[in-house]
Specification:
The chain is an alpha/beta fold. Helices cover about 45% and strands about 15% of the residues.
């Protein structure tokens, strides 16, 4: 039975979207006859993805109606789902600049993507255009779900949920980093083969396929329940899917038997706080106040690697080139038969088709699913998805010390959002002052001024 719906994808020209989400949606038998509106401001990238979609539609007999648009306003009417994957600017170049600007003032961020001063700059650039999309959705498709993949996840979802009437859900695959680490620790107990060369869960081109091999083996065997904030969630339970056995005590024992060089920050935080943090060291480090001291250089002790901006910019170009070859019939589309939409397909199929789906992690406003975090804050828990929508699973309270770390990050995130929406320099300054990376008021002001000046073209709201 098909459930025709209209899905609009904004930022459709990104290589990862073309490879994963597009192909996963177009393989769906349930969505046959649906309309897929592809939107991207980059005409070249949009053309590649449009031609690839046409090929998939033809060869897979997918039955979609496919349209392409440079302006999202042309695509929004009658949409029931709006998938957002936009990223302002040349992502890697700006991320590197987000890291380098505070360095001029003696502030060395551990990662500079979703937390720290870099998290402010990254969010502020994306919030402007995303709020424009939300405003246009209020007029054209007020009941549609906004399915977000853009980072910083917490801040983007918070902006849409608190400053518009649109329903937003944020999806992220980071929970699988937790699964991989559980798989490594319990490998001998569960008969999991660990590929040679796997040394952690950080984002590295050579590590991704190795991590994926562990993920494929561990996910069918255990159920990991986690909650907290995106890239800052904590394992609440680990259960053997076959026997129902609580594997947390065994995992705790085995993890501390691993080589201390394997995710060492995660190891120390697990030891100190008693619950296991999911995201792996390179994301975890962004939200902790002990990772930026220029005297003790904790990033060296914990071997926190920066994102390889140049390499990933080249990878992005290569992936787009490969999609173009597929679109031109110069390469096989066989590899697109097993892609994963990171949850978008599951949300769309089960809401549109009144299904019943349990999803490991999604970001929604807190209505009590984490009882000791602020109401209305964007939090990440498991969810149930059905025809009535996307519903958070209530997990109770986090241990109070962990909740306090999360509350601080929520306050920073909401100040960032309000600053970007209102163009408020005062709130932007407060956001930086509360951020765990910042230790000096004058330095915070200098970093903020430099960001706002350097990114003036992206942040016009602060210059009115």
């Amino acid at each position: 039975m098909s459930l025709p719906t209209k899905i609009t994808v904004i930022g459709a020209g990104s290589a990862s979207f073309g490879e994963n989400t597009l192909s996963a949606i177009m393989r769906s038998k349930k969505l046959r006859g649906s309309t897929l509106a592809l939107v991207d401001r980059n005409a070249g990238s949009l053309d590649i993805v449009r031609r690839l979609a046409d090929r998939l539609n033809r060869e897979w007999e997918a039955g979609f109606v496919i349209t392409a648009h440079k302006d999202h306003r042309d695509a929004l009417p009658d949409s029931q789902f709006v998938v957002n994957a936009i990223e302002v600017g040349a992502r890697e170049n700006l991320w590197q600049k987000d890291f380098e600007i505070p360095l001029k003032y003696g502030v060395r961020q551990p990662y500079a993507e979703n937390g720290g001063p870099g998290g402010f700059a990254h969010a502020a650039r994306n919030i402007g255009p995303i709020m424009q999309i939300a405003r246009d959705m209020e007029g054209a498709c007020p009941d549609a779900w906004f399915i977000n993949f853009t980072n910083p996840m917490v801040r983007i979802c918070d902006a849409v949920n608190r400053h518009s009437t649109i329903k937003a859900v944020g999806l992220c695959h980071q929970i699988y980093a937790g699964y991989v680490m559980v798989g490594v620790a319990l490998a001998n107990d569960l008969g999991i083969e660990i590929p040679e060369g796997l040394n952690g869960v950080h984002a590295a081109v050579d590590q991704h396929p190795l991590q994926h091999r562990v993920r494929e083996q561990i996910v069918p065997l255990v159920d990991v329940r986690a909650a907290g904030l995106n890239h800052f969630t904590w394992i609440l339970s680990i259960t053997d899917r076959r026997t129902g056995e609580d594997l947390y005590p065994l995992f705790r024992k085995r993890f501390f038997e691993l080589d201390p060089k394997f995710e060492p920050l995660t190891r120390d935080v697990f030891s100190a706080f008693g619950l296991f943090p999911i995201p792996g060291d390179t994301h975890l480090c962004e939200y902790l106040p002990w990772m930026s001291d220029t005297q003790t250089k904790p990033w060296e002790k914990y071997n926190i690697r920066l994102y390889d901006w140049e390499l990933f910019a080249n990878v992005r170009e290569f992936e787009l080139h490969r999609l173009n070859q597929m679109a031109n019939n110069e390469a096989t589309i066989e590899g697109l038969m097993n892609t994963d939409s990171e949850g978008a397909l599951e949300m769309i199929e089960n809401v549109a088709g009144a299904g019943n789906h349990y999803h490991l992690a999604a970001n929604l406003p807190n209505v009590g699913q984490i009882s000791n975090l602020p109401m209305g804050a964007t939090v990440e828990t498991p969810v149930h998805v059905n025809g009535a929508g996307i519903h958070p699973v209530h997990v109770g309270a986090l241990p109070e010390p962990i909740a306090e770390l999360c509350r601080r990050e929520i306050t920073v995130a909401q100040l960032c959002v309000d600053a970007a929406v209102e163009g408020s320099r005062e709130k932007a300054f407060q956001c930086l002052l509360l951020d765990p990376v910042i230790t000096d008021m004058d330095t915070a002001r200098k970093i903020l001024d430099d960001y706002l000046t350097s990114y003036k073209e992206y942040l016009p709201q602060f210059w009115k």
